[in-house]
Structures are given as C-alpha cells and as structure tokens.
Amino acid sequence: MNTTLPVLTGIGSVTPYGPLTGLIPPEFMEPLEPGVITAWTTPGVRRAFLVEPFRPAAIVPGLKTRRLDRLSAWALVASSLALQDAGFDLNLIDRSRVAVFFATGFGCVELTEAFFQSADTNGWAGTDPITFPETLHNAPASHVALFHDLRGPNVTLSSKNFAAESALLQAASLLRHGQADLAVVLAGDTLTQAVYEWYEAAHLLAPACFSNEPMPSAAGFIPGEGVVAMVLEPAGRQTARSYAALGAGCWAAGGDARSSVRKLLGDVRLDFVLCAGNGAPCAASPLTCSARDLVGEGTILPAQAVATGMGEAGALLHLLLALSKRPGHGQALLLGRSAHGGYAALRLELF
Amino acid sequence: MIDAQKNIVVTGIGVISPYGIGLSSLQAGMLAGQCCLKPATELYPGFAGTVAAVGALPSLAEGHRYSRTDRMAMAAARDAVADFDGPASDLRESGIVMASTVGGLSEIDAEISRGPAAWYRHGGLSRAASYSVSRVAASVGEHLGIEGPACAVSVACASGAMAIALAANLLLDEAAPMVLAGGSDALCLFTLSGFNSLQALDPEPCRPFDQNRKGLNIGEGAAVLVLETVARATRRGARILAVLRGWAMTNDASHPTAPHKDGLGLACCIQRAMEMAGCGIEEVGYVNAHGTGTPLNDIAETHAYESAFHGRSRPIPVSSTKSYFGHCLGAAGALEAAITITAMQAGALFPTLRLTDPIESSQVDWLRGELRRQPLPVAMSVSAGFGGSNAALVFGRPRA
Known about the structure:
Chain A is 31% helix and 23% strand. Chain A is of the alpha/beta class. In chain A, β1 (6-15) and β2 (18-21) form a beta hairpin. Chain A is globular and about 60 Å long. Chain B is of the alpha/beta class.
C-alpha cells in the first residue's frame, strides 16, 4: 500500500438501490430494472432509474429536509452515511479543514422548475423568495457544510461528461497540497419532467424507456437519479478501513486518450478496468471495447446502465458498483469516455 | 508556500464588461470613475431597479445553441489569449475552469413550466441545451479549440474567485500547461426576480459599505485569466501581468444565505490565503472587497477584515468596485481579480463610489472620493456567496 496517496474510507449513497452505507450488498447486485415514472403525467409508459421516496429523518435522525429539494436531502443523507461509514468522530477533527466537493449536471433543477412555475403563475414580480436561494447549484453542498459544520473549501462543479471524476481528482488534489485534511466528495442529480422530456425530445432515450425491451441498448440511455458520497482522507488513520487509494488521474475534453492513459499508467500493470460510461447516448458494450482498446489488459468491469443514467455525475456510482462487485484486490483504472472524444482516467489501488 | 518554480502567474486577461471589450476599456472607465449603473424599468412588469448591462457582443459566428453567458465567456477567453504567441499545443492542451451561476437560465422561458415537451417543440429544445453551467466551460473550449481538462464552478457569488483557485491547483498538479480561468454571467430575469423577491436589490445605484446602504445591483460580464507556472511563462518569454501568490476557500457553515455575522469564515479564508502567499498583514496594500451593498454582507465583511488584519499598524485600504458596474454574480470574482491586477499595474486604489457615510471601523481604511495613487506590490481580492462560501486571492506584482 502506498501511504502517500489519499484513501477512500467512507461511502454513503441514495440511489435506485435505496439509501445505503458502504458497498452495495450482494443481494442487491442483480441488474436493476428501470421503474415506471408516476411523478408526472406521461404520454404513455416512461421508465427511468428512480429513487423510491423515503423519509430522510428515518435514516439520519434529526435531519430536517422539509424545505429542501430531493437533491439537497439526498446529499445530506449520503454524506451522513459516508461519514458514519468512515467511522469519524467529527468532534475530534478541525472542521475548518474539511472540504466538500459536489458534482452535478443540472443542480437543483426541481426548485428551478418550481421557481419558473411561480414566475409563470404570478409574473416575475411575484416569485417565491424562499425557493430562490435553493435553486443555486451549490445549495446541496452548502447544506452538507451547514449540517455537519464543515468549514473548509466548499465547491460545486459541473463538467461536460466528467463532473464526478473531476470532483474526485480536485478533492484529492486539495488533500495532496495540504489545503484540506479530509474531503467529502458527492455527485448526483435528480430527474424531473423537464429534464426527462428534453432527453426524449432530443431522441437520446433508449427503447427500454418506453417498453420492456431488454437493456442495455446502444441506441440511447435510460436516465437515472441519485447521490453518492465518498470520504477521502490521507492514508494513515489507524482505525480507518480503506476501500481504495487514489492515484494520479486526468480528464480532458479531447485529444489523444490512449497516449494520456498510457502515460498515466507508466509501468503499472492493471488488474481491473472500471468503466464509467458518461454522457448520452452511451451503453456498456462500446465503452468496454474502448477500454480494451485504450488499456489492453486487466479484467474489465463494464459500465452499468443505472450509473450511466446519471450522466456526468455518474462516475461515483460506477465506482461504487465496481467496488461492490470486484472479485479481488489490485491495481485498477476508473475510465470514462464521452461520445465526443473526451476521457477521464483515475488510477486506484483496491484493498 | 509554493515551490518557486511552480509559482502561478497571470499572463493574459480578457474582459467583457459594461465598459466594453477588453481590460483597457475597463481600466480606462474605472480610472475615470465612470459608473455604468443605469435605471431599468422595462425588464419585466413591476421591476424598477438599477443594472449594468454589456453592450453588443462581438460576432462569434456561432448559432443559437450558445447562451448569452456562453457568448460572453467565449469573447472574454478569446480576448485573454489574443496576445498568446506560445506553442499551439500549449493552448490546445490547456485547462478551462469557468464560473457561472446563471449559465443558460437566461434562455429559458417561464412557460416551460406549463409543459416542457410543448415548449421544446416550439423552439426551446436547442435553447435548453445551454442550460447546464458546464456548457460555459465547454463553449470556451469549442470556440478556441482547447481540449484539456474543463469544468465549470457554480458556488454562487464566490464562483469566479474559486475558479481561479481551482485552476491554480490544476497547475500545481501539472494537469495542463496553462489554464484559462474566470467567470461569466448574463443579466437574466430569473436571477433579477430572485434577488428582487428577497428584497436584496437597491433600486438606486448601490452604496457598498455605506451606513445607508440598501442592497445590491445586478450587472453582467465575463473575465478570463490565463494562468501558468512562472517556469513555463519565463521559458516562452511571456509578459507576466501578476503573480498569484496565494489562494484559499472556506465555508461559514452558519446559514443557507446569510454570512456569519462576525465574518469568521471569511476571516479564516483571508488568513489562509495570506499564509499561502507567505505575506503578513502589513504587506497587503489593498483589498478589493466583495462589498455587495447588502446590509448583512457588508457588516460581516467589515468584521472579517477587522479580525484578519488585527494588529496591523495602519488600517487596511478596502473598496468595493461593485459600485461601478454592479454585482456580476459568478463572474464577479474573476472581474474583481482583473481589477485588482489593474490596480497593481496602475498603482491606483479605486475608491468605492457613493460612499459618504462609511461603516465605522478603526481598522479599515475605506477608500472613497478621489482615486488614490500609490505603489501596490501586493493586493487581495475577496469573494463570498450564498451558502456561506468564501474565497480569497492574493496577487503580487511580478519582479521587474
């Protein structure tokens, strides 16, 4: 084990698998089927990977989420579960040196739509002052900071195809440069009518969204939602159980992916390639081919449709699924590619 | 402190502001004390306020899939690299970190809420494609043919300064040879209405740090800084405009919208940025403040300066340049970084306009009235935002 690398010591998630602490249990690991959308009226059957409603306070006692949208509520639940999984006593650490990174594609789109609705109903002069601040992209991350009293860097970012990878890499960078002692990295999105219907109008959806056609399909994707949180810290805490150590990584909007990945790997011989299928349309099989083409070795753990559905915020769920499924220890590469030539790669040592 | 070879320097600045295109127009306007804030009554029925708008944007020959925020970002980025004469591969492999809070919101009509599918069918599909703030960074990349790591930062009004801080970290990591970092935000009914609903807007031109301040004015604009290591900049003979000596980011964790009443998070942020810069409280010659003009922000910020610069032999000179062209939200931190560098270059400390009755503080030297001329080796730009986020950047003049 390389003791200089940041390690992943806690995981919490709110996904179509439900709210979970740590890895996804084996009994949940059957390929998930998309559920039928009932939250709004659809012109026929429409399906997606949806988070079933639950009461956040039943998972995290004391949590008050009445005024929050689902994204902020899920971020609070996932971060709480991740910190609990990491086994921290937050009272014993300097919380002004705990960073929060949140990766999202659309941010608080539910309340953004609600704000537009208030404008449509009452005019722009009659919009809702309670809703407005909660429409900001950084609302979930700031609620996480507020709830846990985390006073370090608090960053919300978005990156075409690779927001989650970018957040993971930048959080690790903060730890390496001594700008934080601990980082909670979150990635997620919620699915709303406006988002779903945009995908549909843009012809990006897989046939499985409309019928019981088998998945996966290369002809589109199945939208999903959820939030995954991971705790990163420098190696060395005696009581910590580590899932993986994070090595070097890169992400780019284009260019020579093969050469960059080769440079990143150096002499490392890979045992696993964890595919993160980002962007739409995207499916497991072309990505698996591309991983083989880029890396050439190691057991490939293909991208899962449920995580691909989360688009640019999906990489943490891809990583969680791969960690839950992996057959052993070893050197791994989390690899994402976009339909437009972009790529993201992150070296990991799996424990 | 940072390894000397990895010192981060600014080698290009591009600006789109209510003064026009380019840093020189911003500099000339501000040195002349020109205020761009204008009354606006026709933005929507019931709105009577003051805003600062950017005039005509340069033609970019691209279609409607770019939002106004995207187009300002692209124009500012093009301006920032206009003098770049280094290897083409350096530019192609550059990183991009762009801040925005509005993104493509300005392209979406409230009617979308009656039925998104119908709105998309009637022309909304391509307009909504620019919604994600990640488009701001992607648009800059597409426009300039840049293929390196790209992301957008959206941390309310601290976004622009955070984009610069994160870009500096990318350079420390050697993730890219250069990084274009900045922010862009357009005037938008959504945000104007939101701030108006919060009763945070001053209907008159704002008066930051004045005891009679009533709120903020919204502006629009974009600024992009070209950042690289001093080693690379020196090697290619680039003109160094400033050194980014230190940066820090913190969160108040005290309230979803209001700042910590004593400015504790911001004070900690300022101290950490100075620590990274390796400079003491006496060295900082000027602070370009966040200074929105809202009652809560300005008093909390004053307390932050009193705490962070406590023990300084002379009061710390502070001004808010939002009094010139309003609060440009996600672009504010980047525009104010550009202004801070301009202040160092010109040896000019910009006064806060309309500051007649400043908040009482024995430890803050409120800049007001006439422009103050003095050498300025080290200056700081400070930003804060909803959600309790804070960012501070310390700039130094390059060695001659």
